[in-house]
Every structure is written in C-alpha cells, then in structure tokens.
Design goal:
The chain is an alpha/beta fold and 349 residues long. The protein has 12 helices and 5 strands. It has a 5-stranded mixed beta sheet with strand order 2-1-3-4-5, sandwiched between helices. The two termini are 22 Å apart.
Length: 349
C-alpha cells in the first residue's frame, strides 16, 4: 500500500484542474515593450543631456580683496553683470586670497584696487571656470572703465592647456571598474581569494597605466605621478568591488543594476572635465558621492594641488571599497549556507 505525502508529485492529477496561464497577445507585448524602451530613452536623454544644459556659473565661491570702497563697488558690479553666478567672500589681503585658491576653498578671485582689477584664476581646477572668471572680470572692467589683468595661479601643463587628459577620465574609470568584475569571474569562477586578488591587482596596474599615459603620452600630468596613479587605482577599485559584491550577493541582476547606475548616473554626473561646481548644485553633489565623481576630484587634487581638497573624495572611495568587500563577504556566507540546503534537496538515487 502506497502512501502519499505532501512532497509526492501529483502525477495522476486531473488535467481539467490545471489552470492554463494565458499570455498577452503579441500586439500588446509589442506595444508595452516599445513604450517601456521609449521611457528609458527619455530618461537617458535627461541624464546625459540635462546636466550639460543646466550647467554653468551658479553660486561659485570667489574671493575679493583690495581697497574697501573699491571692492564694494566691484562686488555690486559683479552681481549686476552675473546675477547668481558667484558667492563673493572677502579676504584681508591678496596673499590670503591666493592661499584660499591653492587650498581649493574658492575657485578664483579678484584683487580690486584704484589702479584696476587683477583676476586670479586656476585653470588646473577647471579651465571652464577660469575662463568664465576672466570673462566676467573683463566685462566688469569695461563697465567700470578699469584696466583688467588675469593671472593663472595654478596653470595646466603647457602640453595640455585645456585639461583634456584628466577631463576624459570618466569613461576609462567606469570601464576599468566594470570589465574586470566579469573577466576575473570568468577565469576564476570558484576561487574567491584569487578573484579578489585579481581585482586588487588590476586596480593597481590600471591606475599606473592610466597615469603613465596621462604623464608621458598626453603631458596632462607633470608632477605627482604615483599620487595620480594611486588616485586612479582607488577609483577603479571603488567601482569594481561594489559591483563584485552585488554580483556575489544578488547574482547577475545585482551586477547589472550596479553597472547601469555607474554608467548612466556616475558617468554623466562625475563632472570630471569641469568639476562638480559647474554642474547643477544637486546633481553635482550627488555625482561626488558616486565613485567616478569622487575619483575625478581626487585625481585633479593629486595632479595639480598636491592632494589639497581631495580628503573627502579619498574617504568616499575608501567607503565604496569597504562596502563592496562587505557585500562580497555576506554573499560568500549566504552561498555557504545555501549549499547544504540545496544538496539535501537532491533526491537520493
């Protein structure tokens, strides 16, 4: 006499009791997929184009120094010439103003005297912003009939006067963070230790290679080679390890979502070519939280400002690396717990 249990498959079930799931008509599926992909296209356009359309001078921190009465008149003329573009800060002397630029507290400034206006810019901080400051100084000078001179306090290297080299780092950083996660998992599918070692090694080697190209091929970096290499390596690692952790914990879906976020949010909002100060305030701040934006800030600080202004970016990248490793460890533990359960569910031969 046989006994049925809850786990015994109902092989002789009445076919009439089986509910047939009806799939939607192909026309509805076609329309639904087309509508969904159309929405995605609109979102991509918004993410990639809106930051450029809305970018510009807004609340840029600039310094003012010089004769009190003349500075007052210049500040009023500055507000009139470029409303909402600048947030002026007063400094007691020209040297204090220069130090603030070198410390990256402000993006530039104006020394205003009876004899004229002396604009201090830092093209290494952002060629776009320094050009805007120079243009504003000339515009105000024309209105006030004051002679204007412009001095680049922290210039870009002569071989890369527009900063194209570092400005183009966003895509290589994202590529360098995404591809190794897939490649090393493919060749090391069962060794967690060697897999993580591969990601560490590639981050270090990749950072050195990119720094070497920027230094010796493009001439975009002329000092601080190893600091730049380390900054790029941290950027690659801060992308790779969170993606590896998401893949280990949630599988292919976790990796896909993470990679898409880095590609379609981290890349356009990084502000590497112009710095985040040029982006819309909310988007620029959000972009600095993601690895590409933080990496761009750290690389620029290491290349041109002896690391000044890069502490927050370095801590942000380190936090991403730690979070990625934590996710990976959690994924490893979950795999070990699930393995015996899956083995016990296999029926004995």
């Amino acid at each position: 006499m046989s006994h049925l249990t809850a786990d015994t498959p109902a092989r002789d079930a009445d076919p009439s009791t089986v509910v047939n799931k009806r799939t939607p008509h192909s026309a509805f599926m076609l329309l639904g997929m087309t509508a969904g992909l159309g929405v995605i296209l609109v979102l991509l356009l918004m993410v990639f184009i809106m930051p450029s359309l809305k970018s510009g001078a807004h609340d840029l921190s600039v310094g003012l120094a010089g004769t009190s009465g003349v500075v007052d008149d210049f500040e009023q003329a500055l507000v009139t010439a470029a409303p909402d573009a600048y947030t002026p800060q007063r400094y007691d002397s020209e040297q204090d103003l220069r130090d603030a630029i070198l410390d990256r507290e402000i993006v530039g400034g104006f020394v205003v005297e009876e004899s004229g206006v002396h604009a201090l810019v830092a093209s290494a901080g952002s060629a776009t912003i320094s050009g805007t400051l120079a243009g504003t100084a000339n515009a105000v000078g024309q209105v006030t009939a004051s002679p204007v001179t412009v001095e680049d306090v922290v210039p870009l290297p002569a071989s890369d006067p527009t900063g194209v080299g570092i400005g183009g780092l966003a895509f290589p950083l994202v590529f360098g963070g995404i591809v190794p996660v897939v490649a090393f998992r493919k060749i090391l599918p069962r060794s967690n230790g060697w897999y993580l070692a591969g990601l560490f090694t590639f981050a270090a080697v990749g950072g050195t290679i990119v720094a070497a190209v920027l230094t010796y091929a493009f001439g975009s970096v002329d000092t601080g080679f190893w600091a730049v290499a380390g900054s790029i390596a941290m950027g690659i690692a801060a992308l790779a390890f969170p993606l590896a952790g998401l893949q280990k914990l949630f599988g292919a879906k976790g990796f896909t979502i993470g990679a898409m976020a880095m590609m379609f949010l981290g890349n356009p909002l990084a502000g590497i070519s112009t710095t985040s100060a040029w982006l819309p305030s909310g988007l620029g701040t959000f972009g600095q939280i993601l690895p590409p934006g933080a990496a761009g800030t750290l690389v620029r600080s290491a290349a041109y400002f002896q690391g000044t202004g890069g502490l927050v970016a370095a801590c942000t990248l380190a936090a991403w690396i730690v979070v990625g490793l934590a996710l990976y460890v959690i994924g490893m533990r979950r795999t070990r717990v699930d393995a015996p359960v899956a083995a016990s569910a296999v029926p004995a031969a």
